[in-house]
Design goal:
The chain is mainly alpha-helical. The protein has 2 domains: about 1-65, Recoverin, domain 1, CATH 1.10.238.10; about 80-140, Recoverin, domain 1 (Orthogonal Bundle). It has 6 helices and 4 strands. It has a two-stranded antiparallel sheet with strand order 1-2. A two-stranded antiparallel ribbon has the order 3-4. Helix 3 (about 50-75) packs across helix 6 (about 130-140). The longest helix has 28 residues, at about 50-75. The radius of gyration is 21 Å and the shape is elongated. InterPro entries: Centrin_CML-like (IPR050145), EF-hand-dom_pair (IPR011992), EF_Hand_1_Ca_BS (IPR018247), EF_hand_dom (IPR002048).
Length: about 140
């Protein structure tokens, strides 16, 4: 915060916020993201105060951690590094983590839960985007 508040204003302007996100997360925030951050600012303030900034950063870190966990799980399933999962990938993964699970249950998970409900491009494969959607779908329902 202090590194981006060069004039010691006590707040971050829109441009200061963009620089801070680049420094912390390695990417330039989109206009939508910057607009959202600025909309959280108290109308009487000139920019994002330290407390508001810390709240935004905390939420972004939680989202990134969750995404990293999903990516790690997907990679563990995608043992051939193809970028998608097949039924065989599911069978192999489930044999390792739940060896007593029946093949019928694995088939149900793959064909019912993934292929029908989250295979957004209907290609019969589970891409990372499909997998991420499935993992977040359960989170959003809770």
């Amino acid at each position: 915060f202090k590194a981006c508040d060069e004039d010691n204003k006590g707040y971050l302007s829109r441009e200061d916020f963009k620089v801070a996100v680049i420094m912390l997360f390695g990417y330039k925030p989109s206009k939508i993201e910057a607009d959202f951050a600025m909309s959280s600012v108290n109308p009487n303030a000139s920019g994002i105060l330290l407390e508001e900034f810390l709240s935004i950063v905390r939420k972004k870190k939680e989202v990134r951690l969750h995404w990293n966990e999903i990516r790690h799980i997907f990679t563990a399933f995608d043992r051939h590094y193809r970028g998608y999962l097949t039924l065989e990938d599911f069978k192999t993964a489930f044999k390792q983590v739940a060896p007593k699970l029946s093949e019928r249950t694995v088939l149900d998970v793959f064909f019912v839960s993934f292929s029908r409900e989250v295979d957004q491009d209907s290609d019969g494969l589970v891409s990372f985007r499909d997998f991420e959607y499935a993992m977040n779908y359960g989170q959003n329902e809770a």
